[in-house]
Specification:
There is one protein chain. This protein is an alpha+beta fold. Helices cover about 20% and strands about 35% of the residues. A six-stranded antiparallel beta sheet has the order 7-6-17-14-9-10, with no helix packed on it. A six-stranded antiparallel beta sheet has the order 13-12-11-8-15-16, with no helix packed on it. Strands 2-1-3-4 form a four-stranded parallel beta sheet, sandwiched between helices. The protein is elongated.
Length: about 290
């Protein structure tokens, strides 16, 4: 198993152009955006707002080529972070978050530290951590996930029977409410709330966890790179919905299947040097 450990992050450099992604309407996130603009002016940094972001806040659209940004700054929670991380996959633009959400596990800067934290980032005082992604294949549908791929019963209150195969080896059929396949980043989200294992950021593996399995023997499994997960819907009268980072991606009827594998491309998470995975884990879940 290979590793992309946080102990060897990509080096950072001073920032000149910043893409801005937000989570809310102008009245809720506008003051934070104004604070960001003030820090950027002081540091001589150009802010780039895509069309939808500029429209949210009544601002003029910045340069449309967001791939030219040195870094992306997110004003929002983990959902907005996931959207930004996915947006910049393959564009060599790391994403750093100022947490204006509820948990903010992926964020590195608190709202109170916005000015001081972003001033450090704009001066190049940050580290870049590559994040493992997942690739989903359902028929003609292809999607990339930063957090998780979830297969759920499409009918509320109905179980599904999911057949599963890993690396070409059949592991049987499991009656359940669904299955979660998560990256290390996603292992602290839906996977954790369903009793799945926490994968330390940097592991090149995915966790497979059943949701409300109708069995005493269904246990989470950690799967390394190179072994595809094949999930089949074996329920004659109930379809299964496939979600990617919480968003509907496809539906599989009886006999249809979804394939999930570790992706070839990485998302790039930027953090302040002291904001390590274990520090965020302790702050979020510790006593």
């Amino acid at each position: 198993m290979t590793s992309t450990s946080e102990s060897k992050p990509r080096s950072a450099s001073a920032v000149r152009r910043v893409a801005v992604i937000t989570h809310g309407k102008r009245e809720t996130i506008g003051p934070a955006l104004a604070r960001l603009e003030s820090v950027a002016r002081g540091a001589g940094v150009e802010l780039l707002l895509p069309g939808e972001e500029a429209a949210k806040h009544g601002l003029q659209e910045g340069d449309a080529d967001l791939a030219a940004a040195d870094i992306a700054v997110v004003l929002g929670g983990d959902g907005t972070m996931l959207r930004a991380l996915n947006r910049f996959i393959g564009q060599d633009v790391p994403v750093i978050g100022v947490n204006f959400g509820r948990v903010g596990f992926l964020a590195s800067v608190t709202p109170d530290e916005l000015e001081a934290g972003l001033a450090r980032v704009f001066a190049g005082d940050y580290r870049v951590v590559p994040l493992t992604t997942l690739e989903l294949e359902v028929g003609d549908v292809r999607a990339v996930s930063v957090n998780d791929v979830v297969v759920l019963s499409a009918t509320r209150g109905r179980m599904v029977a999911l057949g599963w195969t890993i690396g070409g080896e059949d592991l049987g059929i499991q009656p359940c409410d669904g299955m979660i396949c998560s990256t290390p980043s996603g292992s602290t989200a839906y996977n954790l709330s369903n009793g799945g294992p926490v994968l330390v950021r940097g592991l090149d593996a995915m966790a497979v966890t059943f949701i409300a399995a109708h069995s005493l023997h269904a246990r989470p499994m950690v799967v390394p790179r190179g072994l595809d997960l094949d999930v089949r819907n074996e329920t004659p009268d109930v379809a299964a919905s496939v979600l990617v980072d919480g968003h509907p991606a496809a539906e599989i009827g009886h006999g249809a299947r979804a394939v999930v594998r570790l992706g070839d491309r990485r998302a790039l998470l930027a953090t302040l040097p002291e904001t390590t995975f274990f520090r965020r884990y302790r702050e979020t879940f510790g006593s």
